[in-house]
Amino acid sequence: MKGFLHQLAEHFYHTYGHNIHALTIIMPSKRAGAFFLKYLQSIANEPILTPKIVTINEVVEDLSAIQKVDTLTLSFHLYRIYKEITGTDETFDSFYPWGTMLISDFDDVDKYLVDAKLLFTHIEDYKLVDQKFDYLSEEQKDYLGKFWKSFSQKRRSKMQERFEATWNKLYDVYVAFRKFLIEENIGYEGVLYRDLGEKIQDKSLVSNFPGPVFVVGLNALNRCEIMLLSYLKENHQAAFFWDIHPDFIADKEHDAAFFLRRNLKLFPQDTDFDYRPLLDKKIEVVSVPSAIGQSQPVAAFVQERLKAYQHKQHIRFDQISIVLCDEDLLLPTIGAIPKVAGHAPTVNITMGFPMKITPIHSLITLLIDLHRNIHVDGRGVRLFYHKNVQRILNHQLVQMCDSDNSEKLSQSIIQENKVYLHSNELRRGDFLSSLFVFHHDVMAFNRYLLQMLQMIFAGIKEKEEAYVGMQEEFIFKAYKSIKRLGELLDENQKEQDLRLSLPIYFKLLRQYLSQESLPFEGDPLEGVQVMGILETRLLDFENVVVLSMNEGSMPKASGSNSVIPYNLRRAFELPSVEEKCAIYSYYFYRLLQHPKTVQLVYNSTTDGMNNGERSRYLYQLQMQYGYSIPEKTITYEVGSIDTKEIVVPKDESVMQRMSPYLDGKRTLSPSALNGYLDCPLRFYFRYVANVMPSEEVAEEVDARLFGNIYHKVMEDLYKPWMNQVVSKEMFLKLAKDDKRLDATILSAFRTEYFKVENAIVQGRNVLVFEIVKKYVKKTITVDSDHAPMTILGLEVKKKKSISIFDGKYHIFIGGTIDRVDEVDGKLRIIDYKSGTVDFNFNNVPSLFDSEDEGRNKAALQTLIYGYVYGDHEVTDRHMSAGIYQIQALFKDPFVSTINSKEDGLVEDIKEQMPKLETHLTQTFETLFNSSIPFVQTECEAKCTYCDYNKICRKV
Known about the structure:
With 955 residues, the chain is α/β, with parallel strands linked by helices.
């Protein structure tokens, strides 16, 4: 069955033959014209000259002497005029969103030839409906009455008062704005339309068409367009062709023919043309519990249709169409189009690619965020925030331009824990040196963006990736837009003394770019058509699948994007929500006239802004118009993946990785041993496979850093007393020396946290600084109670060899002891702990019980430190195992010695050494036994804070 345009092409060709080139055909879109000419080409078996095909907008632009300009340019002019008339101090970025809305309203006023003086009359005048608006119909007067009623209360709200103050100035703004545009011979589309309408009214319009004029497939006509079509009918004998099913015209309640019933009265259909839509069709509704998941039925639908056409060399342009009511589904839809017989079909995309979802737009957004989050330190130096820097360094376009320096810089930021960075620290290569430059001036930032776009364009041009060409198009489009914005800003800043701050410019830039789109290039007359609902006007396809058939997407949600209230729109017959819904109804039902197969897909989930409600048109098809439509629901089975136990056998490759421990080249630390006892698999990941936990910049001093700073401070304070007898007075004097304490703590902050010289402590870290100082002072005071004391070692590194497998291997165990001191002739092994610690344990065997969730790891670590240190101690002095748990320092009395419930206080580690050595030997023989694999712990509580729980999927 042939579609509307195909039948129309046959009618014109058979009627006019070789003279068809003299025709002028007005259509709703260029694409409709392209389809028409293709059909005409297939009908004519000989060379012919084609008719002239134009849109009604092109006719208006051709007949009007006024030049149409972009909305941003108009917004600057309107802003200047609005400020002059109202005396407001509103900033341009605040004005811009509703200023564009106001231009849209002015556009409607002009296209519908509304008397602006009556529309924008003072609010109080609306109560004089019968006197001032006596020419209106009763229905229009009723709407005016409803509007006045909302303002007639004795006390108006602040919002009503603000609206009234603005409204009462709008007529003056409209008149001044329109006067300026006419003088400059520029305007929005409505200015062109009104200019044309006035020329028709005063009979000054001069038009010249080479032959007959035909108006095809238009729908919602404004008053100016009606005047134009009447003029064409009277002066050029224009004929009219309306594309709509006769049943819709006959049904007075059907809003798809809302405009066409009027159009047919004014401009009757050409009686020589008998359009016959296809009546027999298959329609199916598909429910999908996902927005992106709607692309899956598309894949099945298109694949089935492609198989039916696979005997043909090419897919004809009018055979398969995918219509997107929500254009955000463009990318998943393109990705879902299947291959047939190993070949991907040609795909033609009629809609533009939104700039807001391009990589270059995301990079520009990141550069804006980089400057918005500038940090000014205590010395007034501007610094970049590390997260903004990292996001830029990891961006795909930056990686394509300079991946080596980007990766090195990213790693150094983490390793050096740089929270804030000076631009000098980011100077690595020409590209990054240009990228990380601070600008505080609007025009300088605009030039900076243009420079970066040029460098990125040049940087990716040499790449061979398939998508580079598309990226170049995106960059070029962004460059033109930003260049145009800069020119407008520069021009208006000079003319209007308009001063924009960077934050205002950033908002304006993002608003401006988000409205841009990149048109696709290609042959529109080939392959599978992917289009928005607006592009379907006048086009017919054999097979159609429509996505996002949800209420709010089809028809589009009608927001109040107008300064003119609803009742006033109805009163002055301006388009309102009803007209918008009627337009979408026409699009939808016209689309269903010709296809043999139709699949209507909607998202059934309720999430975010989507309520899962199907479109009203689906209900109408089934209930009001009696279509018998089968429904299908696509479901996704969602369930947890069975977690499989991970077992790593100690094969030859694993044992080879462990050989440095067996050869004595690596030393096992108490932390590594505790890791093995907690979970052998965790030990494997960390110490055998060398899977390192991901590192991040610590923005604040966390528990680990707090402990490191405390350790560093105690080491630096006590280092001058090495091997000296320290008296009580010396301790107390140090505790009171705030200047020395502050300097030492600041130095520790710079070493452990800032990792740069000259950094200053500020913000929340001031509180952390004071807490560290409080604990340090208390530690010194506690030590004074044990004076006199001799400091024998600080951060002492010791290790000891343990023989396993009858002397076959010797394993070193050891680590760094925080402090060794002597009090009353006894040695003390001191381990500082900033976290919570239990000083009690059952006995030495319990410290090796891997199944015990409460196993005392701190006690084992301290005993091992004493064990390895004792191997180097030749005297018979007692050696106790102690823990300085800093939170327990404030308890009275403070006890640091660990306690075995079986043996009592560990006042001499040597008594525990035989048991300790036995269990260390047994544990090492298990660890290095090639027949015993690495397995996961049975205690899932240990997995909660494990660095590798994502691999095991235990939590």
